[in-house]
Amino acid sequence: MSNGLLDRFNGARFPATPRNEVDPPATDSADLPHRRRQAARNNASEAAVPGDGVELPTNASSILAEVAARQRPGSLRRHLSALLSLTKPRLTVLVVLTAVAPYALYPVPSILSSTALADAPSLSPLTLAFLTAGTALSSAAANALNMLYESATDARMARTRNRPLVTGLVSRRAALLFALAAGVAGVAALHFGVNPTVAFLGAANIVLYAGVYTPLKRLSVANTWAGALVGGVPPLMGWAAAAGECAEGDGGWRELLLQGPAAPGGWLFAALLFAWQFPHFMALSWGVRKDYRAAGLRMLAWVDPARNARVALRYSLAFVPLCVALCAAGVTEWSFAATSLPVNAWLAREAVRFWRHEGHAGSARGLFWASVWHLPAVMVLALLQKKGMWGRVWRSVAGEPDLDDEWEDADDGR
Questions:
Q1: Cβ neighbour number for residue 261 with a 10 Å cutoff
Q2: Across the chain, how many H-helices and E-strands are there?
Q3: CATH superfamily to which 264-389 belongs
Q4: H or E segment at 86?
Q5: For the domain with range 63-260, which CATH number is right: 1.10.760.10, 3.40.50.150, 3.40.50.880, 1.10.357.140?
Q6: Residue 305: its pLDDT value, please?
Q7: Which helix (H) or strand (E) holds 158?
Q8: What is the pLDDT of residues 132-158, one digit of tens each?
Q9: What whole-number distance in Å separates Cα of residue 378 and Cα of residue 384?
């Protein structure tokens, strides 16, 4: 075909552009080598092989909502099951346990052996009961508010589309009233049954979870760090509850959280729970990353899978120094540093696999289940190796006088 015919053909279908007006070829950032590699990784992530994701436990709220839906309309069981489903029961139980364990680990021998319990009925058993109930109610309030805010996004995700607000099992008005009642009752129980510092921490965590973390999920991947802060507050609540029982001053927040030789222990437990959120959630979210993306929730699992894996690895390596620090702070015996090492090494190994494979090859599933077992294992090991506990047990069995009793006898004979 001659040049003239080519010109007429081009002019008919594609208007010619003068040579002096042709724009230079634009350099698209997507064409850069590192962008192409990242796109390839993302595409591979979207095309994960079957069975490569995390098999998550069935959502407890959805189970309870289904149970409630099968009950007779207007029945008490239907209402109770529906309201209980608003609390995210598994999450609430975890929150309570992370508050109770530090309470039990606070280094105050008198909580276990003092004869003054009858003179001070607000000590150990009653305080523990108020701490448990108040923490559970505060967590329930925060979770109900979270569901209220996220009912639209819950409807787009497979794991949450059966929640009570999505299916209409509970009205928004009823959920709001439940959240307010649970929040007020929980904070009141913490205030009057424990101490004002713990009540403030409980109220602050409701605001942080429902008012900061939840809306931030739509805006920035920083939501995960805000959620980790939420996880770090319950251990401080348990620690401050125990500290309040032996406060020698005014029992204010400075004395309970910042002053005294035992104060670092609470912050170390808070740091441990803060760090644990990352390997656990990064692995969990990777398995449902498509749902998060479809719902418009900005999670690193789909926004930046490589960074998602790096963050999980980074925080998984923090547990060894944290466990050693608990020994140095006098919370546990030094044997805890050794006995917790295999559990921490297991989590770190799975985090390395997760980082190398960015969630594929079963690495997300391995890290998720390692994190599930890691936290209770570390807590139980710490409880079994509480500073001075076995010494007191041995002295009790052997009939040897306790050091505290010796000081009391010396005072009586003076």
A1: 9
A2: 24, 0
A3: UbiA prenyltransferase (1.20.120.1780)
A4: none
A5: 1.10.357.140
A6: 92
A7: none
A8: 999 999 999 999 999 999 888 888 888
A9: 10
